Amino acid sequence: MNSKVLTVVAPGKLMLFGEHAVIYGYPCIVSALDKYIEIKGKIIDEKDDKFDIADYSDGFIRRMVSVFRIKYGKKEKIFISSKSTLGRYGLGSSAAISVATVKMLGKLFNIPLSAEELFNISYEGVLKVQKGKASGFDLASSIYGGTILFDGKTKKTSYLNKGKLPFLTVFTGRKAKTVDIVKKVAQEKLRNPKETEKILSEIGKIVLRAERALKEKNWKVVGKLMNDNQKLLVELGVSNGMIDKLVKISLESGALGAKISGAGGGDCILVLVERCLTGKVVENIEKSGGTVLDINVGIGGGVKVSL
Ligand code: PMV
Question: Rounded to whole angstroms, what are the CA distances from 282 to 170, 230, 254, 298?
């Protein structure tokens, strides 16, 4: 057992390709960001756990602690505090905090956890909190960092890239509730199984093409695939007026591609733009009510205990 105070950091994420389809077993591509959650924790000699968590994520922390305790038969109480540079833009703070908590508990109790075990424990916790469907892609991103291909069926991860990718991240002005949009797609799939399955499998194919284009840094093709993926997300019914408007203005201003990142219904879109046109695209997006965030996509390192 470790009686020191430990600090763990874990990155936020943005989905590049494959949202929604990944829940139904298709692959997706996700990048870690240079924005992190940081938690501090120690074992305490008290009757109850103590949490000093700034936002809504304390449900995730409590659940991770409970899953870990049951799995490893631990009774000691824990103090955990957290801070974040992720803001409330749907950048994966719940996943980052979940992964960071499990990593920290492993260290505090001297239980070595492989990346796979870290994934399995945090995924069990997240499924319990969300009481519904979640692919776990965001946990994998927080664990491994960089840009990864995540398989929705096997939950296996492989690296595509560890460098910065030329995407702009644009907040559309509205926070979205992932769980509600995931439910909406599930209902649509019940109502129209054939059409919905066709869209999901098309998205799955785009992801595999995008994997190759990203590895080759073929930005023209990456942009085209983003636009194809976005059309399918519109058909799936997860876009909204503001997203459509910002996608349109980005493309009209010269961006190579623009699409929803994540569940849709709000949060962020990603825009792929060549450096020489960035100024114009940013200006037009901001005139239309979007906020370009100060975020680097693809360079976040995986979860780590910081010394
Ligand atoms: O809204 P986000 O960024 O948490 O992304 C959700 C992505 C989904 O595929 C819709 C859900 C999931 O768990 O994969």
Answer: 9, 20, 11, 20
Q: Which atom of ligand 1 lies at the shortest distance from residue 182's CA?
A: 10
Domains defined along the chain, listed by start:
6-162+299-306 (3.30.230.10), 167-292 (3.30.70.890)
Q: Ligand 1 centroid to 263 CA: how many Å?
A: 5
Which two tokens mark 145?
A: 């960092």
Residue among 52, 138, 244, 294 flagged as catalytic: 138
Checking if the pLDDT of 55 tops 80, the result is no
Residues 6+ apart with CB under 8 A from 12: 32, 33, 35, 36, 37, 86, 91, 92, 93, 96, 142, 300
Taking only the tens place, the pLDDT of each residue in 117-140 is 999 999 999 999 887 689 999 999
- SS3 for 32-83 is EEEEEEEEEEEEECCCCCEEECCCCCHHHHHHHHHHHHHHHCCCCEEEEEEE
The strand ranges marked E within the chain are 6-17, 27-44, 50-52, 77-84, 147-151, 157-161, 167-171, 257-261, 268-272, 291-292, 304-306
**Model confidence over 73-93: pLDDT tens digits?**
999 999 999 988 887 787 999
For 148, phi then psi, to 5°, come to -125, 155
Atom 14, ligand 1: residue with shortest CA distance: 135
Which among 138, 187, 189, 259 is the best mutation to test ligand 1's pocket, defined by most ligand atoms within 8 Å of the CB? 138
* Rounded distance from Cα 108 to ligand 1 centre (Å): 30
- Cα–Cα–Cα angle for 250, 223, 159, nearest 5°? 125
Question: Among this protein's residues, is 244 annotated catalytic?
Answer: no
Q: Are 250 and 286 in contact (CB under 8 A)?
A: no
Query: Tokens for 285?
Result: 């997006």
